[in-house]
Write a structure and sequence with these properties.
The complex is a heterodimer of chains A (about 190) and B (about 140). With about 190 residues, chain A is an alpha/beta fold. Chain A contains six helices and nine strands. Chain B is mainly beta and about 140 residues long. Chain B has one helix and ten strands; from the N terminus they run H-E-E-E-E-E-E-E-E-E-E. Chain B has one helix at about 1-15, and strands spanning about 25-30, 40-45, 50-55, 60-70, 75-80, 85, 90-95, 100-105, 115-120, 130-135. The longest helix of chain B is centred in the first third of the chain and has 12 residues, at about 1-15. Chain B is globular. The relative contact order of chain B is 0.28. The chains are: A alpha/beta (about 190), B mainly beta (about 140). At the A-B interface, helix 1, helix 2, helix 4 and strand 7 of A face strand 4, strand 5 and strand 8 of B.
Chain lengths: ~190, ~140
């Protein structure tokens, strides 16, 4: 049953992807001349520490937006990233973090998102914040998130499911498709220089 | 009248579940991360004669339902599926980033090495109790 929300989500997703394609020069995923993706943010990690775009300066960052109540898409993508990192040389892994940013701050407290992210590997850091703190991040990354009511009073979040690659200087490098297999993700990261 | 009875009788006397029942293969679930209260169960279903999956429940969760993760243009969403048609002889696969049994309000975490149980009901075939082995969080496929 295709919902109206679903159609809105798909249209919004198409706009986001079109924007990303322009910014990143898809499909070649070369360095963007004028990266319009990213920007400053102030969020909170699982231990309650403040995390900004400068916290991981010098490291490669994979950023993925989702939520812990997501039963399929988010754990599958995070698990694939974890399996991809297992294929990278140890030296590359040490220079890389995976930031899992919630689109569901109502349920994802710092502890919830922090513990959740850690389960996928030591490089995984869960980030949350107030809706006011998250809004500019979603805007900066062109992330779309829409609450979607489920039967029985619960809700899910429809959301952009794209892995953003940020270089050690904090600049946007490109995106990885969430349907890529771990070997492809690892290969692409090596190709990008991570 | 006798002629009519000749045609009607087989219909009435046929046992309700005379057809070959649905078979379920390769059921599995991924272990949940700490704090995760939802889960997904994957499996393959085949109905030799054609059937429809009409209901799902789980003793391990407050609610269970059939969902489809829709991936389109970089967006991920979930669509509720009330029923799932099982065309005769066609293997229907529930797999990551696609159709899955969504478990909500898990009564306990899904731990690798244990099983999660799901009850399936069908329009024609008898219900099936599925024990799905829980795989490590890094798993992407059923146990070999």
């Amino acid at each position: 049953m295709a919902t109206r929300q679903g159609i809105v989500a798909i249209v919004a997703g198409a706009i986001v992807l079109a924007g990303l394609a322009l910014a990143a020069g898809l499909p070649h995923l070369t360095h963007a001349a004028a990266p319009a993706i990213g920007g400053p943010f102030t969020l909170v990690d699982g231990d309650g520490n403040t995390v900004t775009e400068k916290t991981f300066a010098g490291k490669w960052r994979l950023m993925y937006f989702g939520y812990t109540h997501c039963p399929d898409a988010c754990p599958t993508t995070l698990s694939d990233i974890g399996a991809a990192l297992d294929k990278l040389p140890a030296a590359a892994r040490q220079k890389l973090v995976v930031l899992f940013v919630t689109v569901d701050p109502q349920r994802d407290t710092p502890k919830v998102i922090g513990d959740y992210a850690k389960a996928f590997g030591p490089e995984f850091i869960g980030l949350t914040g107030t809706p006011a703190a998250l809004a500019p991040v979603e805007q900066g990354f062109r992330v779309y998130a829409q609450r979607h009511e489920l039967k029985g009073g619960d809700y899910a979040m429809d959301h952009s499911s794209i892995i953003y690659v940020m270089g050690p200087d904090g600049n946007f490098i490109g995106v990885l498709d969430d349907t890529m297999k771990p070997a492809d993700i690892a290969g692409r990261l090596e190709q990008l220089g991570a | 009248m006798r002629k009519l009875a000749k045609y009607l009788l087989p219909l009435v006397t046929l046992p309700a579940f005379a057809q070959t029942p649905v078979s379920v293969h390769d059921a599995w679930a991924r272990a949940t991360a700490p704090g995760q209260t939802t889960g997904a169960v994957y499996m393959s279903l085949t109905s030799p004669a054609g059937d429809t999956l009409t209901g799902i429940s789980s003793p391990d969760a407050g609610a269970a339902m059939l969902h489809k993760t829709t991936q389109m243009n970089g967006m991920s969403g979930m669509t509720d599926m009330d029923t799932l048609p099982l065309p005769a002889g066609t293997k229907i696969t529930l797999a990551p980033q696609g159709m899955h049994v969504m478990l909500m309000d898990l009564k306990h975490p899904l731990v690798a090495g244990q099983n999660v149980e799901v009850d399936l009901t069908f329009a024609k075939s008898p219900g099936i109790h599925v024990k799905a082995p829980v795989q490590p969080i890094s798993a992407a496929a059923p146990p070999a």
